[in-house]
Amino acid sequence: MIDISTSYMGLQLKSPIVVASSSLTGTVEGVSKCAEAGAGAVVLKSLFEEQITAETAALSEHADDYSGYGEAYDYLQGYGMELGPQQYLDLVSQSKKAVDIPIIASMNCDSGGRWAEYATKLENAGADAIELNVSIMPTSAKEEGLSIVDSYLRILHEVKQKVKIPVAMKVGPYFTSFANFVDRLTHDRAEAPAYSVGWLGKNKDVGKITWKSADGLVLFNRFYKLDIDVDNLKLIHGQPYSSPTEISYSLRWLSLLAGKAGCDLAGNTGIHDGRDAVKALLAGAKVVQICSTLFLNGLEQIGVMEQQLRDWMAEHNYENLCDFRGLLSQSKSDTPEDHERLQYIKLFVGME
């Protein structure tokens, strides 16, 4: 009998098909529909750091009046932070009661400090895990690459210190040395930050820190696309949905990192049908996250993909996902160089 159940960050899933963070998972009704459609787990719509800071700013717009009254200003800050996420906490707790699949809360953040305290509240509300959706845009010419990496490590470290549930990082591919970044992100290690860390004191020499590692890594975050309306001379949103061709970059890094990263891997971006899911699993993913295909084809696409996965497994005589997961990863290849240069050579030189 074919079994498509799997584990992800220690959570037991009946299917490797996970609904990614989006408006589809922004209500209890939406979460319930995803579960009914067969999802193995859902990642809730993200709670954005900007939501919290915006409400805090509104409450403390006269903060300058309290410049000499630290406690009064701290109270305003604390009140705004407490008020902001209440509906999200309700979404977590009510979703947990409504379905029997893992509920993964999502935090979209680009700083640390008190923001990390929400992780504890999410855990107490019943979240089975937390996904940190971090997308720092390095637009300042004065900010060097290593400081960006330290920011990711710091955000993960601070959240991991607060909770006992698993924590995944959803990241983009735009790092100078992505393999090194992942190695630092997915293994506990004691090392000094490359740059001074203001969160522990401005320009303070903190020595070595035992960075906490991620339990899961989602490859890749698909950033919002920018376009230009040439008729009205204004910036507009680009194509919101991924295309199947976008899976190629995720596949390459899934296959390169499988068996080397110190955590479970989730495939994301460009996964539209069951064959795409098979590709990601062959590359080494534990689960796949889908979003665009659900907007384009409806929630019934979850069941379609799972049946396509089962049909492929039956055709190739596989009974469990572990029978073929990572089969085409670099770590299991007799010709590991194929994952790095072969396609380039074949395309431009015609080498067979």
Structure description:
38% of the residues lie in helices and 16% in strands. With 352 residues, the protein is α/β, with parallel strands linked by helices. The protein has a single domain, classed as TIM Barrel, CATH 3.20.20. Strands 3-4-6-7-8-11-14-15 form an eight-stranded parallel beta barrel, surrounded by seven helices. A two-stranded antiparallel sheet has the order 1-2. Helix 9 crosses helix 11. The two termini are 39 Å apart.
User: What is the helix content?
Assistant: 25-40%
* Annotated CATH topology: TIM Barrel
- Which CATH architecture? Alpha-Beta Barrel
> What's the overall geometry?
globular
**Secondary-structure element series:** EEEHEEHHHEHEHEHEEEEEHEHEHHH
Please state the oligomeric state of the protein chains shown: single chain
Largest sheet: number of strands, sense, barrel closure: 8 strands, parallel, barrel
The total count of helices amounts to 12
The fraction of residues assigned to DSSP E strands is: 15-25%
Radius of gyration: 21 Å
The residue ranges in which pLDDT falls below 50 over 5 or more consecutive positions are 62-83
| Tally of separate domains | 1
Distance between the termini: 39 Å
CATH class: Alpha Beta
Number of strands: 15
Strand order of the largest sheet: 3-4-6-7-8-11-14-15
CATH superfamily: Aldolase class I
SS-based class: alpha/beta
Average pLDDT reading: 83
